[in-house]
């Protein structure tokens, strides 16, 4: 009898390629439904299946995803495609002019998408640009993970372990007007190991927190942490170690709480901030921080954003969508998407109700009117 792997086992074996069965065994595209239709309309649309010549596992992860969508769990909302054809987009930053700047991890570049969907290259740092944030000097600060290998099948792109030409983890400062790229912090600076910097958030003091997700190799993966740094390149410290494959990071509206989403454990962690770059040391028996929320099902947490009211919106891969979690750990709602690699969210517009979400596997940036405003960021 075939055994279904638990999510930690799946990632321990496959790393970022834990969703290989979804790509290799079945191609299931919803293009016939059109990018502007709701998830409900997509579920009612005809499906095209093409078997790859191998028996499907019983039940396959993709079947779980279909069951999840057919049952109607999660809010049924309409997403509109802003841009497509992107190479694993992530790290969206909504700009005052209505454009969105994001990374294309697989292409090693920073891209601007205007309100009409026109795409322009801002910079080409190479490696694996991942998280992105605007800093106090008007520059973009980028977490560069050093690069992945990639697997592409059926129009679906997914990371597959540490790149053969891995260029090292680093934090970069990018001029969005000139496209220049400067390395602000690299592996070994201030005695810190930077393996795969992932997501970033600035605080009101001009410093920034970032996660290091690490890298996965055939029989091992890195043990990493959560860092704090100054934007002028003068200070870098690993504040939390170890952390279980931290990914998304964000601050509560008053800056007193730091949130970090762990991918393989699928936990949302919270840390009490006691000073700039410092967290309370004794959150629980495991050290700093306490788990706030962990869902059931075939889910893995990616990057996150925070609403103005304090809810944490965690991009959720696998059974895909945005998990909206209250500060007390209750699931407020789950907003479904149609891409298993739903990786990040940000808000723009004058009222911060325009949500932008990166659907990385299918290479899209989508948007919708969010029922609550996003948090106005420090910069």
TrEMBL record:
Protein name listed in UniProt: SMP-30/Gluconolactonase/LRE-like region domain-containing protein
Domain of life: Eukaryota
Classification via Pfam families: SGL
PANTHER family assigned to the protein according to its UniProt record, in alphabetical order: BLR2277 PROTEIN, LIPOPROTEIN-RELATED
InterPro entries per record: 6-blade_b-propeller_TolB-like, SGL, SMP-30/CGR1_Lactonase
Residues in SMP-30/Gluconolactonase/LRE-like region domain copies: 88-359
